[in-house]
Each structure stands twice: as structure tokens, then as C-alpha cells.
Amino acid sequence: QKEVEQDPGPLSVPEGAIVSLNCTYSNSAFQYFMWYRQYSRKGPELLMYTYSSGNKEDGRFTAQVDKSSKYISLFIRDSQPSDSATYLCAMSASGGGADGLTFGKGTHLIIQP
Amino acid sequence: SAVISQKPSRDICQRGTSLTIQCQVDSQVTMMFWYRQQPGQSLTLIATANQGSEATYESGFVIDKFPISRPNLTFSTLTVSNMSPEDSSIYLCSVDEVGTGELFFGEGSRLTVL
């Protein structure tokens, strides 16, 4: 079993829909959880950073962590064509540097106008 | 957040040659890293570039294949040596400005080896 599982997609939804992106993980030591957005031919861009369980909201984006289920989600409300990108989850136990930071393979999201 | 510039943005190379990728940051950062992103695969950490000392390599990556320099707190290079088609990938420079694991990435260098 891989440490971090993420459905690669593609996930195609109509503009304005609510998008749910998810990752599951196996390492119970993970405490820091991140979501990155990566446009084609660009580097990943940090979207959300959360510690431990709970929700965090930033504009149209909500990150949710359920440590008991080892499951994290990113919700995008009122999705726009500009949200079309690959979304990578990442997580670590230590929260410092890149040491132990484990990425998912990414979900390719397409928002249809 | 730091602005990270990578050069070249892309290159096509012949088997057996070497290519050096440069990473320039617009501010001094302690932590700088090199990642590889292969198609359909997770981002994989190659090494931590340490200023003034040898880089720290992850399992599966060795200095002879991926020599790294870090002469100061704003600049690093990654060389991919004796390239084979399996080295075709995107190579990304990243920094952790505040030591919390919030990584910022360069645009990446897309390498194709024929």
C-alpha cells in the first residue's frame, strides 16, 4: 500500500459546480497537510496548509482533514475554468522543510465552461 | 513568498551528456531542495542543497549522478550526469522560507533525453 493515495482523474465538472478532491494515507504520524495546484508547464503552487484535524477555509477553497479516517479533502466552490489544473496533496509528520514530505500523484481537474 | 527562477526551462539532450540546471531565489533562504516529477508519478525529493557543505541525498539518488552545488543562500545548481532516456523528467527547485514545510517551487526544467 502506497503511503498517499490520490485518484489521478481526470475529473471533469461543469463550471459553477462544487468540486471535491481527496487523498487517503496510511501513516498515522502525518500531522501537516497541504494542497498544491499545478498548472500545465508550471511549478506547484501552495494553496492550503493545515495542521492536524479540522477545516480551513480560504475564499472558494476549503481544506478538510479527518485524521481518524486518514482522509483529507479539498473542496472548491463555484468552480471556474481557471481552476482547471492538477491538484497535489502533500503531508508530513514533522512540518519542517521537505524532510518526510510525501506527495500524492495529483488529480487532474477539468472545469468545463 | 520567494520568487524562484530556473534555467533552462526546457532542453533536449543526447544520451551520455550532462546538463546543469540553475535555481536563483530573490531572497536568502536556508532550505533549498531539488525534486523530480516524472509523468504519472509523485513529486520525488532528490536532495537537500546545503549551503557550504555537501548536499543530503534521498534514498535512490547519488552524488555522482546528481551533483549539487549551493555556493550561497540564493543560488543552487543541479547537474544530471551521463543522461539516459530514463532521466527525462521535470526537475524542480523549491524552498522553505519559514521552516514549516510550506514549499515554494520554481517553474521547473523539462528535460528530454534522446
By DSSP (H or I, 4+ residues per run), the number of helices of chain B equals 0
Beta-strand residue fraction of chain A: over 45%
The whole-number mean of residue pLDDT values of chain B reads 94
Write down the overall mean pLDDT of chain A. Answer: 93
Spans of chain B of at least 5 consecutive residues whose pLDDT stays below 50 are none
Largest sheet of chain B: 7 strands, mixed
Tally of alpha and pi helices of chain A: 0
Distance N to C terminus of chain A: 37 Å
Percent range of helical residues of chain B: under 10%
Number of DSSP strands of chain A?
11
Order of helices and strands of chain B: EEEEEEEEEEE
As a percent range, the share of strand residues of chain B is over 45%
The oligomeric state is: heterodimer
SSE class of chain B: mainly beta
Short overview:
The complex is a heterodimer of chains A (113) and B (114). By secondary structure, chain A is mainly β. Chain A has no helices and eleven strands.
Topology:
The complex is a heterodimer of chains A (113) and B (114).
Chain A (H helix, E strand, L loop, with lengths): L3 E2 L5 E4 L4 E7 L6 E7 L6 E7 L2 E5 L2 E6 L4 E6 L8 E8 L9 E2 L3 E6 L1
Parallel strand pairs in A: 2-11
Antiparallel strand pairs in A: 1-3, 3-8, 4-5, 4-9, 6-7, 7-8, 9-10, 9-11
Chain B lengths: L3 E4 L2 E4 L5 E7 L5 E7 L6 E6 L6 E2 L10 E5 L2 E6 L8 E8 L6 E3 L3 E5 L1
Parallel strand pairs in B: 2-11
Antiparallel strand pairs in B: 1-3, 3-8, 4-5, 4-9, 5-6, 7-8, 9-10, 9-11
Textual characterization of the structure:
The complex is a heterodimer of chains A (113) and B (114). Chain A is mostly beta strands and 113 residues long. Chain A contains no helices and 11 strands. In chain A, a hairpin with a 6-residue loop joins β4 and β5. Chain A is globular and about 40 Å long. The model of chain A has no long low-confidence stretch (mean pLDDT 93). With 114 residues, chain B is mainly β. Chain B has no helices and 11 strands. The interface between A and B is medium-sized, with 27 and 24 residues.
